[in-house]
Input
Amino acid sequence: MKPSIYYIIIFSLISNLSLYSQNKEDNEIISTINSVFDAMRNRDSSQINKLILPNAFLSSIYFEQNNTKIEISSTKDFALAVSNPHEKIWDERIYAYDIKVDRDFAFCWTDFVFFYGDTIHHCGTNNFVLVKKNDCWKIAQITDNSYTDYCVERIKSSDSIKAEINNLMNQWHRFAANSDKEFFELIAENGVYIGTDPEENWTKMEIENLYKPYFEQGKSWDFKAKERNIYVSADYERVWFDELLETWMGYCRASGYIEKQNDKWKICYYTISISVPNNKTKEVIEVIKREE
Output
């Protein structure tokens, strides 16, 4: 069955059928953590209190005169410190994520570099414990350590991978625009294509069989990324990303998951959907209903 032109087009290239829900949870957890540090940059203590549970505690591990010390503080202490005046912006930037989820319980290990204004102050790792309450991830505990060596190297490693992924995705979109069969080669061998129709669930081979005839006729699509966010795993072997695309359908939002397989980056998951303004949602739903 060919995809209906009346439906929102969605590509999903996933390693297994459970990956979508896992990827969704990962994205929500990353969003929660990033929102905490956005609030810190903006000195917004009220937003921090929304993201971190009231009874949460924060512990910092540091080394002083060959002794390991632990400093424990509360959410209230953290929010107060964030809101207090400071000469330069507190800017904690996350460079890698490692996430484990079990139902409504999750761990997230991150690499970070803390900037005081534009200057590197220290770096280290965070360990977040999160729980899901009312369908929203909340932070129950944060443990971190800090040091001043290897901070620049950490930034370079993450930035290098982000540059690789950025180039790969731009190239992937160019392959499609040029009807180049290399488009299919960047997809993981165990990838699955899931369209919007209930019957549209294809393997990589089925994707190629479906679209290669169109590529051979020079019929394809030309999507250009206007912006892209890339998140790197702590082992630097996996990435998540989202992007805003200019397409013949207007602006589209897309996200995906890429991992290294045999030392090559492969796209395991990709989903794209038309951005529908809220005031146009009912009209779009009516069009879809008429075509069912």
Notes: The longest helix spans residues 151-177. The mean pLDDT is 86.
